[in-house]
């Protein structure tokens, strides 16, 4: 990568170790560690070099921040996972609070329970990081991996 600095143009070269782990970029005159291999510029600082080029490792936190389903998709996923029975899944898809989740409301403060029901009734999109989803998953003792799978996140 050619950059203009105070002393004129300088060339940055990028290196990995033998396993493909990115070491860093070195300007003219800087010496990378012995055994380093020069590569093209990586797309991300966490990228790893493979035989096919740079690969950015899967980031579940970032994937969770952007994952969402329509209410219909979410209700179908809960039904298919056996979390909701048919009648409750249909009711939930219509915006009603599922009978099987009534115990969840008692787990919350009255104010939170009211908010949860209003949010659910008006929601068209269910986000993976929504506090109701997170609290419900905790109440159901669902591991993050199962909730991720429901939202189509694979590691």
Structural features, described:
Helix content is 39%, strand content 21%. It has helices at residues 60-66, 71-80, 86-93, 102-107, 110-122, 131-139, 144-150, and strands at 2-5, 8-11, 13-16, 22-26, 37-39, 48-50, 53-55, 68-70, 125-127. Strands 4-3-5 form a 3-stranded antiparallel β-sheet, with no helix packed on it. Strands 1-2 form a two-stranded antiparallel sheet. The longest helix has 13 residues, at 110-122. The model has no long low-confidence stretch (mean pLDDT 90).
Architecture blueprint of SSEs:
Layout: E1 2-5, E2 8-11, E3 13-16, E4 22-26, E5 37-39, E6 48-50, E7 53-55, H1 60-66, E8 68-70, H2 71-80, H3 86-93, H4 102-107, H5 110-122, E9 125-127, H6 131-139, H7 144-150
Antiparallel strand pairs: 1-2, 3-4, 3-5, 6-7, 8-9
Helix pairs in contact: 2-3
Number of helices: 7
The H/E string reads: EEEEEEEHEHHHHEHH
Total number of β-strand segments?
9
Largest sheet: spatial strand order: 4-3-5
Seen as an oligomer or otherwise, the chain set is single chain
| Cα radius of gyration in angstroms | 24 Å
**Stretches where pLDDT falls below 50 for ≥5 residues?**
none
Largest sheet: 3 strands, antiparallel
Distance between the termini: 32 Å
Shape type: elongated
The residue fraction in helices comes out at 25-40%
User: Average pLDDT value?
Assistant: 90
Given helix and strand content, the structural type is alpha+beta
Tell me the β content: 15-25%
